[in-house]
Design brief:
single chain, alpha+beta, Apea-like HEPN domain-containing protein, five-stranded antiparallel sheet, 451 residues
Length: 451
């Protein structure tokens, strides 16, 4: 109740910062200004009936002010006062049920809508908190998203977390067209199969990940991408051995997929003498294929455990720490540079095992003394030797740019250790709430100097 009261009180205080100014004459259309915004010219307008909101943006696309064009004037919260408006919006996002279904962009829009309403009618007919919650309830819906997965072949549908991996056939596409076309005809629109195929063909006979989320539209896109990214990287965790092979591409959801078709460059000896035209084509062009036998194996190895972890969705610190760790570990093979992979592999371990603000703690020592004994993974001395080797490679590369030789055995064994460590964490945190609880499990003492 205190937070709601604070929001309502701050809403009126921020409303007092709204200033009026004459409409700035322009011959530019709203569409032209939107195109400029897409090209990097910082102005944004959101049409809403006869009133349009506008905002200037910084280089990170963050609002620096907000205003609206009324029939005879403009109202605006200037840059000097915008931080107070931003704080008001962030108060809403600190309320858990609102943050789950709405995002910053949506709250900005409806909060300023409330202020426009007061300015126009000269009276507040509803408190800000109630106005925003009502708008959320109106706009929040269950929405479904299908994302294309690049460089992956699947022979059977399966589920990881909240994402369903599958493929649509040409017959499936035709069924969707018939349903969509029937709906369009009801609304007086004619949809041709030829036009449909131009749009939909890229989704046919291609691996897709489907997810269902609930919220306002802008929040749902964000939620869907997070769910897809988590499930895809969970799958990648258990397929890293295949991705080590020469010629195999690292599969990913298309919005995270970064592969160039070719690299072109010139080589010469001063003044363009003995000039050479060089073209390098990627060698990692073979997709990874998952059959039923492979799927059964990795589910048994721990992917099903990850699936259960994801759908449990516990709203505690340790859950989000492990979510981030799954994404970080699954992303290792996205680095084409092996030295960058080693840097990020070590970072993956240290993010989870080094206590916060304990700058004297050494990740290598904690790994060897506290983590390895708990994992029961074969010859521990060999593992400690391999860990030392990777730390040496990492340190020489980061601090001296010396590229020591990377042997497959050391890299593979420590990466496999990382997977076992992650499985162990997922399997043991069901009763934990914080990262400190995980440190206690591994007997990692906060503020204790690691020898």
């Amino acid at each position: 109740m205190d937070s709601i009261l604070s929001i309502n009180q701050n809403g009126y205080k921020v409303f007092e910062l709204v200033k009026s100014r004459p409409i700035i004459k322009t011959t530019r259309s709203l569409e032209e200004e939107r195109r400029d915004n897409e090209a990097g010219i910082p102005t944004l307008q959101i049409a809403d009936d006869s009133i349009s909101q506008f905002s200037n943006l910084d280089i990170f696309n963050n609002n620096v002010n907000i205003g609206a064009r009324l029939p005879n004037e403009e109202i605006i919260i200037n840059e000097s006062d915008y931080n107070q408006f931003k704080f008001l919006v962030e108060q809403f996002l600190s309320i858990d049920f609102i943050n789950r279904v709405a995002d910053y962009k949506f709250i900005v829009k409806v909060t300023f809508d409330w202020m426009i309403g007061i300015y126009v009618s000269k009276i507040a007919t509803v408190e800000l908190y109630d106005f925003v919650v009502t708008k959320i309830e109106e706009k929040a819906k269950q929405r479904h998203y299908d994302f294309i997965i690049k460089a992956l072949e699947i022979q059977t549908p399966f589920q990881v977390g909240n994402c369903h991996f599958h493929q649509l056939s040409q017959n499936d596409s035709l069924k969707v067209f018939e349903t969509t076309s029937a709906e369009a005809n009801k609304n007086g629109r004619d949809m041709k199969l030829e036009d449909w195929n131009k749009i939909f063909n890229s989704f046919v006979n291609t691996p897709l990940a489907t997810v269902t989320v609930f919220g306002v539209e802008s929040k749902c896109v964000e939620l869907a991408k997070k769910e897809i990214r988590l499930s895809v990287n969970s799958l990648k965790c258990f397929l890293f051995p295949q991705m080590l092979r020469i010629g195999v591409d690292t599969f990913n959801v298309d919005f995270d997929y970064r592969v160039v078709d070719k690299v072109e460059y010139l080589s010469h000896i001063g003044n363009f003498q003995n000039i050479g035209f060089n073209v390098e084509f990627p060698t990692n062009t073979q997709p990874i294929s998952i059959g039923q036998a492979e799927l059964n194996k990795i589910m048994k190895d721990g992917l099903f455990l990850f699936h259960q972890f994801i759908i449990s969705k516990r709203n505690v610190e340790i859950y989000y720490d492990i979510e981030n760790a799954i994404i970080q570990f699954g992303s290792l093979n996205s680095f084409s540079n092996l030295y960058e992979r080693i840097i990020n592999l070590i970072s993956f371990f240290e993010t989870l095992i080094i206590p916060k603000n304990n700058y004297k703690a050494k990740g290598e020592t904690i790994l060897k003394k506290n983590v390895i004994p708990k994992l029961h993974i074969g010859d521990q001395e060999v593992m400690r030797t391999n860990i030392r080797r990777l730390y040496d490679i990492r340190d020489k590369y980061v601090h001296n740019r010396i590229e020591l030789a990377i042997d497959v055995e050391s890299y593979y064994s420590v990466t496999l250790c990382g997977l076992f460590f992650l499985i162990h964490c997922v399997n043991t945190i069901s009763t934990m709430n914080t990262i400190d609880d995980l440190h206690c499990h591994f007997d990692i003492v906060k503020d204790k100097k690691q020898e």
